[in-house]
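Run log // design_07
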């Protein structure tokens, strides 16, 4: 028997949106393991929510930091929409008990998986957008992500940018990144990426996405060479 999930009213209150079409919220909470097919899972809503989130956050940053140049705005945007930040928002909403997963096996562990929580966060944003339009989605995003704008969890100089600047200062070409392997199940892949810096041995990085693995590989390289971001 599937575990009993708490009422969706509690989640709607946390998110800050009362759904007219609650089926959208239910789909946003449905992991591929708990759906009849991929179309019935949160994946399509996550695709939409990712774009909606990026647009709204970009607008927030543009308004909040009128003196910031494009590079700083881009770094702030990357910080706010990265998986770890989206997962943090999902945890604040307490989405884990509401997730719809296949019973048994490894899938229940998805409730604590950063990639899954991040995808569900974006799927909920997409669901709110379809249910209430841009203004409703903007209100939800501003409430959840607004407080995080002024307290970045990482240096705004990301590892890949720092490594590129380090290489240029030594007259080296742009660093490259090569996919070494992909492991793990389809719902929680782990990518291994290698740095390619002319004249230096590679460093390996891992992450739930290629982008995250590249950042980790760059961070590992910088740490090995004693470079501070």
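design_07 sequence
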């Amino acid at each position: 028997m599937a575990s009993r999930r708490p009422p969706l009213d509690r989640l709607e209150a946390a998110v800050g949106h009362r759904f007219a079409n609650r089926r959208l919220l239910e789909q946003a909470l449905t992991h591929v393991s708990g759906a009849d097919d991929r179309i019935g899972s949160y994946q399509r809503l996550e695709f939409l929510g990712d774009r909606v989130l990026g647009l709204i956050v970009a607008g927030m940053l543009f308004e909040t930091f009128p003196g910031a140049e494009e590079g700083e705005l881009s770094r702030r945007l990357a910080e706010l929409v990265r998986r770890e930040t989206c997962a943090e928002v999902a945890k604040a909403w307490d989405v884990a008990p509401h997730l719809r997963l296949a019973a048994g096996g490894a899938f229940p562990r998805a409730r604590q998986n950063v990639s899954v929580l991040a995808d569900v966060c974006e799927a909920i944003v997409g669901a709110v957008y379809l249910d209430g339009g841009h203004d409703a989605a903007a209100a939800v995003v501003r409430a959840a992500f607004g407080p995080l704008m002024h307290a970045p969890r990482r240096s705004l100089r990301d590892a890949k940018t720092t490594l590129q600047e380090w290489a240029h200062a030594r007259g080296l070409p742009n660093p490259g990144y090569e996919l070494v392997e992909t492991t793990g199940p389809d719902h929680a892949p782990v990518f291994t990426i290698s740095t390619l810096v002319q004249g230096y041995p590679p460093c390996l990085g891992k992450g739930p996405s290629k982008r995250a693995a590249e950042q980790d590989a760059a961070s590992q390289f910088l740490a090995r060479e004693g470079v501070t971001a």
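The mean pLDDT is 87.
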